[in-house]
Design goal:
The structure holds 2 protein chains of 2 kinds. Chain A has one domain: HUPs (Rossmann fold). Helix content of chain A is 29%, strand content 30%. Chain B folds into 2 domains: 187 residues, 3-Layer(aba) Sandwich (Rossmann fold), CATH 3.40.50.620; 119 residues, Rossmann fold (3-Layer(aba) Sandwich). Chain B is 28% helix and 28% strand. In chain B, helix 3 crosses helix 4. The N and C termini of chain B lie far apart (55 Å). The chains are: A alpha/beta, B alpha/beta. At the A-B interface, helix 3, helix 4, strand 9, strand 10 and strand 11 of A face helix 4, strand 7, strand 9, strand 10 and strand 13 of B.
């Protein structure tokens, strides 16, 4: 089975951020693989364990530093990586990113495409579904369970929805966006890290994939402001014994806040 | 009609029962339409006929027209069938704006619509504004709420946005409103059905979803073990609340990941969030700090959770919870 996994780099979720010149500033905070993309990489690796002739290709669109997440994915066990890197990609919105990915992926052969359910920086949950639409293939987002028929031609896919779950059956190829609960991503082993040094990372620019920024490169949404959320007003610690403070809390929530 | 700026509000329902988030989408659509000067279409997809749908409520919440797109293959949501039903209607009626709930289905469908129509998308919006020059301006949390981004769209239409639950509630139904109902029998090709729904499980009863509930009571490592979450469930039952959890609790297997609040879990904005034995890691704060009112119960007076709380009780959650539950029970049953 040929598996493509889309990954990106984000600021570590433990970072506190500030805003500088209309951009997120997290200088000094570590950059990591998007946590949901780790589930996608892990799922590909587990499929390869069951079907050893599988090939796992990582693909990432972003600046030079994104090579780090490709190296991590290779160290986890992926076979090869493609880095889409061009300053022409900088002004793209999420749909534009999906268009570039589609352009790069359509020349490859694949049975399965795995993405994270969303990137924890932009939180748009757009690129995976958009990529599937552009490649004209079925997809399921926010997947928490995946099994295959014995001949690996059909996938059974489960996802959580609000207050429940859904199970689908789809022929391959299919695109899935992966959610926490699907698996437990492994850490790269020392052996994996050494092996990764010999694995190829191919860098492609807009010309190499035939991406026409004139017709496809204009963003449909544009950020005009980025700010920190308003500070919450200073709270109040309810002092005294619980026999005093709890009735007061209940009164406040009912009579002042009117939330109960 | 093509000169008017109409809004399509896409309804979500469970076998005909409209979901609360969809009424919020209608409320937001009404406010926007009043600024834009167009009509609100409540777009309902399913096998149900007009008499099986509560069109009255859709109109009272803001719809000028209820547009039923009917086909037996729409009995369960699949993105491909929904797309095939919706696209011809969008292409023939040219809505200016399409609004959906920021639910699993809503976000998936919105991303797919945007890719098919090659128009702009903003997901998980917390506010919508309109001006005649640029159309919509939206605000949405990024980095799970650590920052807020303001977006404008280019000139392509429709502008698509998904709306976060509990943010657009408004004044409720207006019984004096009137509207029309229109039903279209749509075509769904075999091709759109390659992805087959095998099973849909809807939990009923007390297991409210944390992103939809108006009150969330949430537990962290201070709950000490999985069994003690019974104390949270007891409080939740009294309040009609959903039970959430912090990431370490989920990673330790005490609670299912669907209950996790935070940057790698769910982002919630309930009326009331009660954090019990949660210290308040930055990822957790990101996921819940848009809640209207926050109560923190923690034995460490220096826990970061108190920095976002409106009210704090310094004490052991295991000791406080049973007392708080009986206090609420007494008052609410009085």
């Amino acid at each position: 089975m040929k598996i493509i996994v889309c990954v990106k780099q984000v600021i570590d979720t433990a970072a506190k951020i500030s805003v500088k010149d209309g951009k997120i500033d997290a200088t000094g905070s570590p950059r990591v693989m998007n946590p949901y993309d780790e589930f996608a990489v892990e799922e590909a690796l587990q499929i390869k364990q069951r079907k050893p002739d599988s090939e796992i290709t990582l693909i990432s669109l972003g600046p030079d530093s994104f090579k780090e997440v490709l190296k991590k994915g290779l160290a986890m066990g992926a076979d090869r990586a493609i880095h889409l890197h061009d300053s022409l990609f900088d002004p793209l919105d999420n749909l534009g990113v999906a268009q570039v990915l589609a352009k790069a992926i359509q020349s490859l052969s694949f049975d399965l495409i795995l993405c994270g359910r969303q990137a924890v920086d932009d939180d748009m949950a757009q690129v995976g579904p958009a990529l599937a639409i552009l490649l004209k293939m079925p997809f399921v987002s926010v997947v928490t369970g995946l099994t295959f028929s014995d001949d690996f031609t059909q996938a059974q896919i489960t996802r959580q929805i609000e207050g429940g779950s859904e199970t689908f059956e789809s022929p391959l190829p299919v695109l899935l966006t992966c959610q926490k609960g699907l698996n437990m991503p492994r850490l790269p082993s020392l052996k994996g890290i050494i092996a990764a040094k010999k694995k190829p990372i191919e860098t492609l620019d807009a010309t190499a994939i035939g991406f026409d920024t004139g017709s496809e490169g204009s963003a449909h949404v544009k950020r005009i402001d980025l700010s920190l959320p308003p500070e919450r007003k200073k709270g109040r610690i309810l002092e005294g014994s619980l026999a005093q403070s709890l009735p007061e809390l209940v009164r406040l929530l009912r009579e002042e806040e009117k939330v109960v | 009609m093509s000169g008017d700026k109409h809004i399509f509000a896409i309804m979500e329902h469970i076998q005909g029962a409209i979901k609360p988030g969809s009424f919020e989408v209608l409320t937001a659509s009404r406010l926007l339409a009043d600024q834009m000067g167009g009509q609100v279409f409540a777009v309902y997809l399913g096998p149900e006929s007009e008499s099986e749908i509560d069109c009255e409520s859709l109109i009272q919440y803001g719809a000028d027209r209820v547009l039923i797109l009917r086909h037996s293959a729409l009995a369960s949501y699949t993105v491909s069938a929904y797309l095939e039903a919706l696209l011809p209607v969008i292409e023939s009626r040219h809505p200016e704006v399409v609004l959906l709930s920021a639910s699993i289905h809503g976000k998936e469908l919105a991303a797919a619509l945007s890719a098919r129509l090659k128009t702009g998308l903003g997901s998980d919006c917390i506010s919508l504004d309109f001006n005649s020059a640029e159309g919509l301006t939206i605000r949405r949390p990024v980095n799970s709420g650590k920052a807020i981004s303001t977006l404008v769209y280019d000139s392509t239409r429709p502008q698509i946005a998904t709306l976060r639950a509990n943010v657009f509630r408004g004044a409720g139904p207006d019984a004096s409103r009137s509207g029309q109902v229109e039903c279209i029998e749509v075509q769904i090709s075999e091709n759109s059905l390659s992805l087959k729904v095998k099973e849909v499980v809807q939990e009923t009863g007390r297991n409210l979803d944390i992103s939809e509930a108006r009150i969330v009571v949430s537990g962290g490592l201070g709950m000490q073990n999985a069994g003690n979450f019974k104390l949270l469930q007891d409080l939740a039952d009294v309040l009609g609340a959903a039970v959430g959890a912090s990431r370490p609790v989920v990673d330790d297997g005490w609670r299912d990941y669907s209950n996790q609040v935070g940057q790698t879990g769910r982002t919630v904005s309930p009326d009331l969030y009660i954090a019990c034995g949660i210290s308040g890691a930055v990822q957790h704060l990101a996921g819940m700090s848009f809640s209207n009112c926050i109560v923190a119960i923690n034995k460490d007076p220096n826990a970061p959770i108190f920095s976002v709380a409106d009210y704090g009780i310094v004490g052991d959650a295991l000791e406080v919870l049973p007392l708080l539950t009986s206090e609420f029970r007494e008052v609410l049953n009085a």
